[in-house]
From TrEMBL:
GO terms for biological process: translation. This is Small ribosomal subunit protein uS14. InterPro entries: Ribosomal_uS14 (IPR001209), Ribosomal_uS14_bac/plastid (IPR023036), Ribosomal_uS14_CS (IPR018271). It comes from Rhodobaculum claviforme. Transmembrane segments: none annotated. Part of the 30S ribosomal subunit. Contacts proteins S3 and S10. One of its GO terms (molecular function) is rRNA binding. The keyword RNA-binding applies. The keyword Cell division does not apply. Belongs to the universal ribosomal protein uS14 family.
Amino acid sequence: MAKKSMVEREKKRQRMVAKFAAKRAALKDVAKDENRSMEERFKAHLKLAELPRNSAPSRLHNRCQVSGRPKAYYRKLKISRIALRDLASNGQIPGMVKSSW
């Protein structure tokens, strides 16, 4: 099980990304627009830099919804390999059988 503080920190980052998504997108559009003056584009870059760091989507990290584990994460299932194995062994994932030979 992951530390609760790390899981909560990740949730906080997700909230911040959602909160600042529209503002960040608008500033990026202004900064990339070739038809605008250099001063406007530069000001947009400065305002973009003033936004909180944790509001950037690249700072998000996928975590297992069962255990909070940040590594070995299956995007399609949204769980880690260890949680997947436990659930499959208990027969809680339909169609999945633990391999044996």
